[in-house]
Specification:
Distance between the termini: 29 Å
Order of helices and strands: EHEEEHEEEHEEHE
Helix content: 25-40%
Largest sheet: 6 strands, antiparallel
Radius of gyration: 15 Å
Number of strands: 10
Shape: globular
């Protein structure tokens, strides 16, 4: 039996009903019996990174306890994106939903289709701010730093991140 690992998944959407998309993704992830929901950050509006112009993103990070292998978790995440209507067009383009595995316990994995920890999480405030909210001590096994420590190294001038209050908060 695979041990249960803490897993952090980034969620993002910038098309249609962003709040509903993030809540639906959390709901679908939580339906997997080998993925036990632990917590979700607040929702944050964030500046798009990549192809311009495009609508503002809504981002969050959810924590789960996971007894899937990293490959099984990737297949689950990709299946949920597809089920929700994600079409992989141009890299960095707008999307209905985007789910990324940030951390999988202390696992370090690099294959052509999956890299854990996420290879660019340490550059992205839109990931680090919500991750630090729910798990400031989440440890990056390559950088040997916590989420909070990494966040402190990322410039605030690069891309803005704004916490959303009220009706645009997570339902869970």
């Amino acid at each position: 039996m695979i041990e249960q690992n803490p897993v952090f998944i980034a969620l993002g959407a910038n098309l249609e009903h962003r709040t509903s998309q993030l809540n639906k993704a959390i709901e679908l992830l939580s339906m997997e019996e080998k993925l036990v929901f632990r917590s979700v950050s607040s929702f944050y509006e964030t500046e798009p990174v990549g192809v311009e112009p495009q609508p503002v993103y809504l981002n969050a990070v959810a924590e789960f306890k996971c007894s899937l292998t990293p490959r099984q978790l990737l297949n689950l995440v990709l299946g949920i994106e597809k089920k929700m209507g994600r079409v992989r067009a141009t890299k960095g383009s707008s999307r209905l939903i985007d789910l990324d595995i940030l951390l999988y316990g202390q696992c370090v994995l690099k294959t052509p289709s999956l890299e854990v920890p996420h290879p660019r999480m340490h550059e992205r405030r839109f990931v680090l701010v919500p991750l630090s909210e729910i798990a400031p001590k989440a440890f990056h096994p390559i950088l040997k730093m916590t989420a909070k420590e990494i966040l402190e190294t990322v410039t605030k001038k690069k891309y803005w991140v704004k916490k959303i209050e009220g009706d645009s908060s997570p339902l869970l």
